[in-house]
Each structure stands twice: as C-alpha cells, then as structure tokens.
Design brief:
- Helices cover 30% and strands 14% of the residues.
- It has 248 residues and is of the alpha/beta class.
- Strand 3 (105-109), helix 3 (118-129) and strand 4 (133-137) form a beta-alpha-beta unit.
- It is globular.
Length: 248
C-alpha cells in the first residue's frame, strides 16, 4: 500500500481516540522481533555529572516521558499508517553498545544533559552514516541548544544544523502539516523551532524539536490533560518522522 493511499484512508482518523487508557510506569520491554514489524528505540546516554539527581524522581534525562509516550505512539503509529508495529515495539538502547544498529528510527530527549563519551560518539556517527534516523525532542533554551551543538560537533566536526521550513518533505510526506508555529506543552513563552542535520548528499539524518516536547503530548494523550487538537498535532509530527525515515 502506498503512502498516499494510506493517507487517504486514515488521514481523518482522530488520533488520540486510538490510545488505550493505561496507568503507571512499566518495566522496559524485552527485546523481541517479529518478521515484518517495525521496531524503534529510545537512546540511553551518559548524562552530565551535574544533571540534577533528584530531578523528576531520579528519572534520568534520557528516560523522560518513558514508557507511556513510547507505548502510546507505537499504538497510534500502527493504527494510523497500518505499519506493523508491536504495541510494545519500543526499546531502550545504549550508545555504548551495537544494539542500536537493529533500529532504523530512534528517539533521544533532554540533550542539554548529553555528555558523549568517545565510544558513544563513534557509535552515533556509525549509526547515522549507515542510514539511521534520530528524532531529538524535549529540550529548551539557548544554553541547551548550544551544548547539544557542541556535542554533535564531536560526531561531525564540520556539519551544522539547518532550520527546517514547513515546505520540507519531512512535514509533507504523510500528513500535510500546515505550520511549524506550534504550541509547546510548557515553557510557552519560548518559540519552538525545527532543525535538521544532513549528510554530504543532503540526506536528512536527524530532526531536532527545539523548545518543544511532542512526547509530552503523547504521554498524556489518554488522560485528557492536554488539548485534543494539540495532542493530535504532536502525533502527526511523529508519524511523519517515521514515514519520512522509512521512505528516504
């Protein structure tokens, strides 16, 4: 089934209505694969030593919104696109290990606390060079962005991020996103921006949701804490990211 056909069939679906109502945190799912299924992973990394300790009940910065956001997104992705995606098709992978190479699409958050080791730097570079796609989300403020740029210069010293416009195919490949002037779930005085990192041939390797947190909308979309239309928009961005990564 083509992407266009899927869009016509499912584009009008009310996304949040598809999310099951569940409570509580869950243990990370065991790694499991089934033929023909799409699996993605959340990237675990070593945070800066001063990252905050008791902040968010000792949850490390890379794990914010896990597992509710990941579980809800996997459910929506499968229902809307008909991509075979296990409802527990999300994993945690470390940049210290080669497990990441099993996943074409990965998610990383709170990169203002990122502190790449030499091993993590080599692994992340190899992952991106081999065609992996990374979504960076849930961080805000110029200091955090500047720090992330420095960390990524460890990976690619000569590459820089470019601000993306709504006309980029990333935002038009499944849902036709009309505007990037979106409302973040908190810190609403800050303006979200979208940045991309591409290789020498122009292939987009990474999208960066700056001053934004689409996974916060995913996490609480089954609780009614967030406006329905904003949660739906957050899902549209995530779905486009997956479809783009799998078709480019």
């Amino acid at each position: 089934m083509s992407v266009k056909t899927v869009f016509l069939c499912f584009g009008a679906i009310l996304l949040v209505a598809l999310v099951p109502h569940r409570h509580g945190r869950a243990d990370p799912p065991l790694s499991k694969f089934h033929v023909g299924e799409f699996h993605y992973a959340r990237i675990k990394y070593n945070p800066l030593p001063w990252w905050g300790g008791p902040y968010q009940q000792n949850i490390p910065p890379w794990a914010h919104d896990y597992p509710r956001a990941d579980r809800n997104f996997a459910k929506i992705l499968a229902e809307v696109t008909q991509i075979r995606c296990d409802s527990e098709g999300y994993q945690i992978v470390s940049l210290d290990e080669d497990e990441i190479f099993k996943y074409p699409w990965t998610y990383m958050c709170e990169v203002g606390y990122l502190d790449l080791t030499p091993k993590e730097t080599v692994t992340l570079r190899a992952y991106l060079d081999r065609g992996g796609f990374v979504v960076v989300d849930d961080f805000r403020g110029d200091a955090a962005l500047d720090h992330f740029v420095i960390e990524m210069h460890k990976v690619y010293p000569s590459r820089n991020f470019q601000e993306l416009q709504v006309s980029h195919p990333l935002f038009q490949c499944f849902y036709s996103i009309k505007t990037l002037d979106v409302v973040p779930p908190y810190a609403r005085h800050l303006k979200p921006k979208f940045y991309g990192l591409s290789d020498e041939k122009g292939r987009l390797q990474m999208v960066v949701n700056f001053n934004n947190d689409i996974s916060e909308y995913w996490e609480w979309s089954d609780e009614g804490w967030m406006p329905l239309e904003l949660s739906n928009e957050a899902y549209k961005f995530g779905i486009n990211y997956v479809v783009y990564a799998l078709t480019h």
